[in-house]
Amino acid sequence: RKLRLQYEPITETLVTDEKWLSFVLEHGIDGLTKEDRQAMLRFANTAAAIVTTRKGALAVMPTKDEITRNL
Question: Which of 42, 47, 40 is nearest to 23 (CA)?
């Protein structure tokens, strides 16, 4: 049996991460040390890892305390 998939491509863009990135690029990270940048990335990656273990969207975002406990 052959399955057929029909879909229409979505042209919209999610701007949440885009806005955050724009803010970082606008204000720069030049003043941050290598250790600061690494800590920032570890924090963001830990938050993302926590989110992937939960169902939902905005309601599943971890708190700062949850992220810090999991670093």
Answer: 40
